[in-house]
Amino acid sequence: MNRAGFYAIEGVDGCGKSGMVGYLVDLLRGRGQEVIATREPGGTPQGEAIRALILSGQDDAWDPHSELLLMTAARVEHVRRVITPALARGAAVVSDRYVGSTIAYQGAGRGMAEDLIRGLHRDVVGDVWPDLTIILDLDPEIGLARSRNRLSASAIDEGRFETLDLAFHRRIRQSFLDQATRDPARHIVVDASGTPDDVRARVASALAGTTGAIA
C-alpha cells in the first residue's frame, strides 16, 4: 500500500472481517501511515446507536425499507464525521463493512432494488466509495456457525441477521461475488477458509498483485 486510501472489508457473517481489519491497520501503521479503523453500522455515536437497534431483536423488528434507511442514516454520519475528515488530512481508513454490505443484505438478501440502494447512497451519502474492497469469501454455513458461536460466547446481542435462513446468507455471498465481478479494479476476492494465518497470507499475496491504491 503506497498511499492513504479508503479500504473496506466485506463478506458473510463469520468470515473473519474484524481480524482482517486489524491486519491491514497494522500493515499500514508499520509503514508510517496514520490509520483509522472503523465499522458499519457504527463508527460514530449516532451509528453505534443505530447498530444497537438494527442488529438486535427479532428479524421482524424492522420493515426492509426502514432497515435500509437506518443503515443509510448511519453511513451519512460515518462519512461526514469520520471517513471524509480522515481522508482529507491524509489518513487511511479501514472499515469493517460499507455500502457493499447494504447492496448484499438489503439488496440481494431482502430483495430491494440495487438501483434504489445505489441512488440513495449517491444522493444522501455523497457517492463516496472505497478505493479497494476486500471480500473474504466463505461458505455461509461455515460462517454462520462461527458467528453464532462467537455471539453466544460473548453474550453480544447482535445476532438478528444470524437468525435468518441459509438461503438468505447464500444470496449475500453471491451478491458480494457479483459486485467484485462487475468492478474488478476496486475489489479483490480472497478465500477465507482455513486458519487466520492462511487467510492473511492470501490477502498479502492478493494485495501484492494490485495496482493503484495498493502497491
From TrEMBL:
Reaction(s) catalysed (UniProt annotation): dTMP + ATP = dTDP + ADP
PROSITE patterns in alphabetical order: THYMIDYLATE_KINASE
Matches recorded under Gene3D superfamilies: P-loop containing nucleotide triphosphate hydrolases
Keyword Nucleotide-binding part of the UniProt annotation: yes
Keyword Transferase belongs to the record: yes
GO molecular function per UniProt: ATP binding; dTMP kinase activity
NCBIfam families: DTMP_kinase (TIGR00041)
Family under the similarity heading: Belongs to the thymidylate kinase family.
Role, per record: Phosphorylation of dTMP to form dTDP in both de novo and salvage pathways of dTTP synthesis.
Designated name of the protein: Thymidylate kinase
